[in-house]
Amino acid sequence: MESTKQKIVNAILVRVYDKGETETDFEELIALCDTAGYHTVATLSQHRDRPDHTFYIGTGKVQELKQAALSLDAGTVVMDNEISPAQLNNLEKELQIPVIDRATLILEIFAQHATSNEGKLQVELAQKKHSLPRVLGQGMILSRTGGGGGGGGGARRGAGEQQLELDRRTIREEIRELERKIEKLSDAHRLRRNRRNKSEMQSVCIVGYTNVGKSTLMNFLTKANVLEENKLFATLDPVSRKFWLAPHKEFILTDTVGFISKLPHEFIEAFKSTLEETADADLILLVCDGADERIVEKMKVVHEVLDGIGAGSIPYIVVYNKCDLLSVSDIPEQGISVSAKTGSGVEELKQRICEKLFGERLSW
Ligand SMILES: Nc1nc2c(ncn2[C@@H]2O[C@H](COP(=O)(O)OP(=O)(O)OP(=O)(O)O)[C@@H](O)[C@H]2O)c(=O)[nH]1
Ligand SMILES: [Mg+2]
After folding, report:
1. Distance between alpha carbon 251 and the CA centroid of its chain, in Å?
2. Is 340 touching ligand 1 by the criterion CB < 6 Å?
3. Residues within 5 Å of ion ligand 2 by Cβ?
4. Which ligand has an atom closest to residue 219 CA?
């Protein structure tokens, strides 16, 4: 899929570290920006004991950021931290360019990549939920510009507040409508799953951090033709295929949306029905990128998300993918090395799946 990209916007990325927090590079955030269509022109970080009340970053840094934005023609600032709607608004006012947070960035990517009707509705719901508390900012801008000039204006502020309440109410209604539509679709999912349960076909879900090669593995195993791309969140809509191991040894294999650290919590709520598919699985293929130095922390994120969606106790097989590349030396858990690209290790993976699902190995 080629997303219809707008004009590339220059972005400056900002991160604040807590006291004692170790610094990490901006690689993942830059990749997220790149996927969303932003070009990173600078990164800026700061250690603080506690966030600045007004701007989150210190006032000196705000001025530094303002200068950098001007000289580098930046059209947006991306904050890696969770900053309050008021702080976001204060920053935007000071910098005179939009400021977005990590969650908004991820949701923008989801919006670009959603293809199915359900996927689009889920993303729209997540975006609306994320924007609801942030309407505060826009409302303040509305009342400010509506007022024209400083001072006084109690009545004008009142009008701004009324508008704000109206905006919020509209969004809340839209949220309820979206939830209704999604609920209807989830009913259809449940029906399908129940039918599948009746047919006693077991379900295996491919799960893992984004960009580890889940879809490539799905395609290698089933020729499902799912889009594989060196981009984050290439897959949003789950794709399922029947997989035949041997006579009477069939199961349903599903490729799912990737996880990422600091996944917007609105995502989990909005993608509930998609994630239920994983929570209902009989077996999880927990795919990791065996050549990624961040493997330990990414695996931790995947376990946390699985716990969070109620899939923490489902049996799983760790699949260290990309074994055609140089593997990292210390792998966190026992697993099986494969290359979804070359097919190396895949036969052994099938054997393990057979053992886990049917209690025996295949006799070839
Ligand atoms: N070298 C190598 N590259 C691989 C392998 N498997 C996947 N890739 C590459 O890794 C990138 C991501 O692959 P995908 O299959 O799209 O990854 P994914 O986990 O489905 O990613 P999302 O859907 O975005 O979460 C692509 O550029 C693939 O070509 C492998 O075994 N070896
Ligand atoms: Mg994928």
Report:
1. 27
2. yes
3. 214-215, 234-235
4. 1
The tokens of 188 are what?
A: 């259809």
Nearest ligand 1 atom to alpha carbon 321 = 31
HSE-CB for 4 with a 13 A CA cutoff = 1
Please report, for the domain that includes residue 13, its CATH number: 3.40.50.11060
Q: Encode pLDDT of 219-231 as tens digits.
A: 999 987 788 888 8
Average pLDDT, stretch 171-189?
Answer: 88
Residue to substitute in 228, 286, 328 for testing ligand 1 pocket (most ligand atoms within 8 angstroms of CB): 228
Together in a domain, 37 and 63: yes
Please list the residues that pair with 287 across neighbouring strands. Answer: 208, 319
Rounded Cα distance between 85 and 62, Å, is 17
Amino acid in position 283: L
Residue 258 in contact with ligand 1 by CB distance below 6 A: yes
Which residue reads 């600091």 in tokens?
262
**Global pTM exceeds 0.70:** yes
**Residue 338, ligand 1, Cβ within 6 A:** no
Q: What is the domain count for the chain? A: 3
CA distances from 257 to 85, 113, 212, 250 (A): 28, 11, 11, 23
Instruction: Indicate whether 195 belongs to any domain.
Output: yes
